[in-house]
Amino acid sequence: MIKRKDKQKDNPFYDPTLTKRHRSSRRFKRFTLTSLVFSIAFLIFFLFDIVTKGTPAFQQAYLKIDVTYSQEAKQNYRKAIDKKYQNIVSRAWLRTIPMEIENNPELLGTKTTIWVLADDQVDQYLKGHYYKLKRKDRALIDDMKADGHAELKFNEIFFKNGDSKTPEFAGLKSAIIGSILTLIITMVFAFPIGVMTAVYLEEFAEDNKFTQTIEVNINNLAAIPSILFGLLGLAIFINLFGLPRSSPLVGGLTLALMTLPIIIVSSRAALRAVPDSIRQAGYGLGLTKIEVTRDHVLPLAFPGILTGSIIGLAQAMGETAPLIIIGMIAFIPDSPSSIMEAATVMPAQLFTWAGMPERMYIEKTAAGIMVLLTILISLNALAIYLRKKYEVKW
Amino acid sequence: MIKFALITASTISILTTFGILFSILFEAIAFFEVRSMWYFLTGTEWSPGIPGSKFGAVPIFAGTLMITFIAMCVAIPVGLGSAIYMSEYASHKTRSYLKPILEVLAGIPTVVYGFFAAITVAPFIVKAAAWFGLEATFNSALASGVVMGIMIIPVISSLSDDVIKAVPDSQRKASLGLGMTQGETIRNIVLPSALPGIISATLLGFSKAIGETMIVVMAAGLRPNLSINPLEDMTTVTVRIVDALVGDQAFNSPETLVAFALGLALFIVTLILNIISLSLIRKFKEKYKVNTL
């Protein structure tokens, strides 16, 4: 038997560096795999971090105490509860008592034991986070907890209320409504214009200077930093046209210009995927170009167009920078009722909360992020589902 | 009639670009009428708001470059590495799972990244720096740069993956047939062929990093700081634009108008990067007759 080493020596093609080269090749593969693993690990860590930070916000501390709806309480809401509870009950909730009496006069003069909203520090204390509470109050809460009079309950306020300066009273509702209004405006403008541009470029336009300019422009628009769209919205819609600042109308228009290139590019791809035989069959039957496009090509391309638009919508929904520039970070406790009123949107609301000093806002921001990401991921999943369902192999 | 409507719709994209350019340009000119353009471009002192306010943007440009540089140090190796693995090593099926996962990173809103950078990464960097006996601020350029780099990974990996995939297989086979290892084939044959596309992807990532706003607004500082220490706080063009416009100053005061001067600088730089990158990718497409991408 010939030893392996000798065999290699006799082989005229033997490359003494081969082992080294193979090792280097493996090293290279390991490097590429590591970088991929790094990105995915980051994603997992990131989601884990947000979920652990945000989950506590879905629960909120409530206290079971006596509330007196007296004439005194109507004048001074602090009188509605026993003095010893004053530091641990939410001030924002207490302030609603006079209005409650106003609305339900039969309550006047009654005394009931109900679950009331606790102060944010109590909430943090019960969740085992950092808190600022006096020893006396802590002892009181410990006693109440032992009696079952202090509990963490599902946080309805987070979805029912608008923004508030008191963290335990702040919710996402006005931001969600603002987001919906803004996105409606965005789609009303971006969708028809985007699809029409795509149809023109794909079906009608000849290759001339004009269409080439549009092409280059669309590619550039897609890559322009979003904050510059905010400057455009500020200078043109607000300063030139005098549309109201912070309104969903201006926000929606600004986002529409940003979403346009996404819709145009994906609609063009969808139109291009429709085979020419369809068009030629239409012409063969004597249809005009407009009829072929309207009745045959567009319906066939529609699922693709829809997919692209949903992705564009999702992107507009997460956009913050241009909206900050046009003033959509104002403090808005009430939900906007029209597109001309000042409003805030979800990402802008998260930005505002993230800048607040109270610890509870961090929790709320993370919880808001969970809500926002859930919506965005569902939108993207819907887009993928539509694409898969209507995918046609020609 | 219908055709007219279609042409009108298409014209809007051109109008938008010009709208952005002119609205920014006019306000920037209004700024340069009251403040020297030369000082804006070369001055090193930035002190708006105080009497005799100065607008020397050099520290701001430097801060932007620093944070972008950190971001690219993260994004280029990781993004390119992921792209190479997905297109060269992974099976078709694995690739079809991996790509959407990476694209989730691109779909995360930047305000979320900003929150993550400010709340999780920045305190971690302060702790880690203290461990090495260094001192980092809570608004360190490193925190926002690293998170921004992660945000840019899919920009680079997705486009590079397409480009690498588009390099004809005959090249790989020829190289392997001549006895090259797979690593050598990728490094010496595939990557050089795909280089225009990879550079294009990198430039797009670069332009995205320069224009990124929310991460730096939330995690980087407000203080113009001419320093090369990434553990210090720095500010960027976009941060100053936001800061100038959320204040209470009158709209025609230089403190507000300077936002448009900064915006103009941002517009010009990103536009140049985009044009170069788009022309590179077109060259690549012509070379290999790729229809998709």
Describe this structure in words.
The complex is a heterodimer of chains A (394) and B (293). Chain A has 394 residues and is mainly alpha-helical. Chain A has two domains: 93 residues, no CATH class; 218 residues, MetI-like fold. Chain A is 65% helix and 6% strand. Chain A is built from 17 helices and three strands. Chain A has a three-stranded antiparallel beta sheet. Chain B is built from eleven helices and two strands. Chain B has a two-stranded antiparallel sheet. The radius of gyration of chain B is 22 Å and the shape is globular. Chain A: GO terms for molecular function: phosphate transmembrane transporter activity. Chain A: Keywords: Cell membrane, Membrane, Transmembrane, Transmembrane helix, Transport. Chain A: It is found in: Cell membrane.
Quick recap of the structure?
The complex is a heterodimer of chains A (394) and B (293). With 394 residues, chain A is mainly alpha-helical.
Q: Count every helix of chain B, treating DSSP H or I runs of 4 or more residues as helices.
A: 11
Q: DSSP strand (E) fraction of chain A?
A: 5-15%
Q: Which class best fits the helix and strand makeup of chain A?
A: mainly alpha
Largest β-sheet summary of chain A: 3 strands, antiparallel
Q: Which residues of chain B form runs of ≥5 with pLDDT under 50? A: none
The poorly predicted ranges of chain A are none
Q: Which CATH architecture of the largest domain in chain A would you pick?
A: Orthogonal Bundle
Question: How many domains would you count in the coordinates of chain A?
Answer: 2
What is the number of strand segments of chain A? 3
Name the pair of protein chains with the most residues at their interface, and give those residue counts. A-B, 89 and 85 residues
Radius of gyration of chain B: 22 Å
The residue fraction in helices of chain A comes out at 55-70%
Subunit arrangement of the protein:
heterodimer
Mean pLDDT of chain A: 87
Q: Indicate the structural class of chain B.
A: mainly alpha
The fraction of residues in strands of chain B falls at under 5%
Number of DSSP-assigned strands of chain B: 2
The secondary-structure element order of chain A is HHEHHHEHHEHHHHHHHHHH
Main sheet of chain B: which strands, in order across? 1-2
Q: Trace the largest sheet of chain A across and list its strands.
A: 2-1-3
Keywords (chain A): Cell membrane, Membrane, Transmembrane, Transmembrane helix, Transport
InterPro entries (chain A): DUF3333, MetI-like, MetI-like_sf, Phosphate_PstA
Subcellular location (chain A): Cell membrane
Membrane topology (chain A): Multi-pass membrane protein
